[in-house]
Specification:
about 725 residues, alpha+beta, Jelly Rolls, 15 helices, disordered N terminus
């Protein structure tokens, strides 16, 4: 065991004149003491001398420290008790372990203790007093996270821990007495190797150890910034780290806090670990405080650069300007040891190269795409790799929602940092894929303030990826039927006007006619200013002015489908108007277009509003959540216009140009008359035929012949109308 000089000019004490004569100041470990008394003192002070002699020969008490506070801004002139591999460098740093790769069986062990026992209790059976300590440490390895095993601040009944093992035991305990209450060991470990048998949480953690190296409480090494963000601290990285350990003896609460010295020199407001524990059964009246470290196959150098301690108070501040430097690795030693380990290094290099090659191959396999010639003919195509990276590999955490035609993910395009929504759409045969891509790429040229902008597309196999601008406030239906706040009437009316304007642009103002085919609340997205934008053009179809629309499928959502689709199978601008009429009523009434568990005359929302109109009390259909906080003229206009747009005959419905005029106040409310409305009861039947067809009709083996359900077979299906908002399609 080594002892470093007695004088402590770099140390601050709280002392008394009598305490200066205490035995601990007169003895040195391993030597006998000799007292000299001047002759005049023999006669007058004999009782006092006898008392001092009794203190000196007491065999049961350790050498007690007369101090309850000390500070070492470096260890150049300290008198720490050092053992095993611990040394103090020329610059004043305490090094606990040797970084040599030539390790004994249990690696290196290093201990350093304050030379005098500290009094933690006023009586042997009393409560442990509050104490506080802070220190700066660093762990140095050949490369970050390549060393081991860690260091610990420790309290022990003796400075002699020669039986303790290194490696995962950190020089604190032997293999056999793990968890033995007779150890009376308290430590806070800073561990850089994960040992499953010791229940370590990871290979970079801080833990509280009591009589064992199996931590009672632990946490990944990190600290909390002033704004509450948790930042990880890599222990094994040559980083100077400051640690605070505070024990409240009244509340039995132990707090452990760390922070990197370079970025956060002040103590964080929130501790890393706050653990309720009574240390009275663990600590004796007098205990030694210090540091311990251990290594095994993976070597590290564990340094402590400064240390302060206080009982019943906050540990003194450290003068960080006096911190000693960490010694740099010797280049000559490294060169001398390189050749014997050249084969090992070469093997490791091969392993690293193989690992990197495998990772690159796997990433390329995940992002590989086979681009066919016809795809290059269409604009707005994005590389699949870019879309893959934008969504972090379609991470589940990025999932915004799922629909009948695919899933939608949030992402950020690497090329410009724009937030986007990526929809994955599964499609069928290659010919259908070509037609779909042709129309989608054309739709990418649409520009209107109330349309969600299509940023681009890409294809991988039978999967299409559509990339849209991200709307931060989500979809309209989440406000109408979800758990979000109730929209005001002004917001609702502004959204309806915006969607009407976008449909007018699609139907009459672009170079081709675009039929959206799926106008509904869940496809109306809201930007940061709560403006409505029509999105999801995955089902849209376009054709030239004067041409007849062609389609092979009925697609859409129950409640928004025009009744003529059950016989014509052709989506037109008029069928979009019907869907918009359902949206008008849905927004004004706060109800879905098709309801379940209601009387037969209330299954379709349009029938209910029509009946109330005939009774002269149409405003009673307004969403009850609004109370009376709405503009009656606007509400009446929206309800009546919704009924007009929902007429059974396409020719009877207004065009979107007329709808926009009504909403902008360019046409009077009186023009919306109750007479001559074409409201057929077969709308209910047609909606149910479409629903039945989507789930029940199956093609025969001899062609595309489909059985048609009878009215009687569907008359009792009103209570099972789909409310999920899922899109369906019926091949013709």
């Amino acid at each position: 065991m080594k002892t470093v000089g007695i004088p402590k000019p770099n140390t601050v004490f709280a002392t008394s004149s009598f305490a200066a004569m205490a035995p601990s100041s007169l003895t040195v470990e391993g030597s006998k003491s000799l007292l000299f008394f001047p002759p005049p003192l023999y006669h007058h002070h004999f009782p006092l001398l006898l008392f001092l002699l009794l203190l000196l020969v007491r065999p049961c008490c350790p050498a007690a420290s007369p101090n309850d506070s000390f500070v070492f801004n470096n260890f150049r002139t300290s008198n720490l008790i050092l053992s095993e591999s611990s040394i103090i460098t020329k610059k004043g740093a305490l090094r606990l372990t040797n970084g040599s790769t030539h390790l004994p069986n249990w690696g290196y062990v290093g201990h350093a203790f304050y030379p005098a026992a500290l009094q933690f209790k006023t009586t042997p059976a009393g409560r442990t007093q509050s104490f506080s300590t802070r220190f700066v440490f660093a762990i140095v390895s050949k490369a970050p996270q390549s060393g081991g095993h860690g260091l610990a601040f420790a309290m022990a009944p003796s400075t002699n821990l020669s039986n303790a093992k290194g490696s995962q035991y950190l020089g604190l305990v032997d293999v056999s007495p793990i968890g033995n209450s007779s150890n009376h060991i308290f430590a806070v470990e800073f561990d850089t190797v994960r040992q499953p048998l010791l229940q370590d949480i990871d290979d970079n953690h801080v833990g509280i150890d009591i009589n064992s190296v199996i931590s009672n409480a632990s946490s990944t090494a990190s600290y909390y910034t002033d704004d509450g963000k948790n930042e990880t601290v890599l222990l094994d990285s040559r980083t100077l780290i400051q640690a605070w350990i505070d024990y409240d003896g009244h509340m039995n609460l132990l707090n452990v806090t760390i922070a990197p010295l370079s970025s956060h020199p002040q103590k964080p407001k929130r501790p890393l670990i706050s653990y309720s524990v009574d240390l009275s059964p663990v600590l004796h009246q007098y205990m030694y405080a210090g540091f311990s470290a251990g290594t095994q196959r993976r070597a590290s150098e564990h340094y402590v650069l400064a240390w302060s301690f206080m009982i019943n108070g906050q540990a003194p501040e450290l003068d960080l300007s006096q911190l000693p430097p960490i010694p740099k690795a010797s280049t000559s030693i490294w060169k001398s040891r390189f050749l014997p380990y050249a084969s090992i290094l070469f093997f490791l290099l091969v392993c690293v190269v193989a690992g990197i090659s495998w990772a690159v191959y796997r990433r390329r396999k995940l992002t590989h795409e086979k681009i066919e010639e016809w795809e290059l003919e269409y604009p707005h195509r994005l590389p699949y790799k870019e879309v893959y990276r934008a969504t972090e590999g379609f991470n589940k955490k990025k999932l915004l929602g799922k629909g009948g035609f695919g899933s939608v993910y949030k992402g950020v395009l690497p090329r410009n940092g724009v937030e986007v929504a990526v929809k994955r759409v599964s499609h069928g045969a290659e010919q259908g894929m070509k037609e779909f891509v042709a129309e989608v790429s054309t739709l990418g040229r649409l520009r209107h303030k109330n349309l969600v902008q299509l940023q681009g597309w890409c294809r991988r196999g039978e999967e299409l990826l559509l990339v849209y601008d991200l709307m931060p406030n989500g979809s309209l239906d989440s406000y109408l039927f979800g758990d979000k706040r109730c929209l005001s009437w002004g917001e609702r009316f502004n959204i309806l006007k915006g969607i009407a304007s976008s449909l007018l642009y699609l139907h009459d103002e672009w170079e081709q006619i675009v039929v959206h085919r799926d106008v509904k609340a869940s496809n109306v997205l809201l930007d940061a200013a709560m403006n409505g934008k029509l999105g999801d053009f995955g089902l849209a179809r376009l054709y030239d002015y004067g041409a007849n629309p062609k389609t092979t499928r009925i697609v859409g959502t129950i409640g928004y489908l025009a009744p003529e689709l059950s016989s014509t199978y052709k989506a037109t601008t008029s069928s979009d108007v019907f869907s918009y009429g359902a949206l008008l009523l849905e927004v004004a009434c706060g109800r879905r277009p098709v309801g379940t568990g209601r009387a037969s005359e209330e299954v379709l929302l349009v029938n209910l509003v029509h009946s109330l109109w005939k009774e002269g009390r149409i405003l009673s259909a307004v969403d009850k959540r609004l109370g009376m906080d709405y503009v009656e003229e606007e509400a009446e206009l929206v309800l009546k216009l919704g009924v007009h747009c929902s007429q059974a005959t396409p020719a009877a419905r207004p065009s979107m140009r007329h709808v926009v005029k009504f909403l902008n106040g360019d046409s009077s409310l009186e023009a919306l008359e109750l007479q001559n409305l074409v409201m057929e009861d077969d709308q209910v039947f047609d909606q149910l035929v479409l629903q039945f067809s989507s789930s029940s009709i199956r093609p025969s083996n001899r062609g595309s012949c489909y059985a048609t359900p009878t009215r009687e077979s569907l008359i009792n299906k009103n209570d099972r109308v789909d409310q999920s908002g899922e899109v369906f399609e019926v091949p013709r």
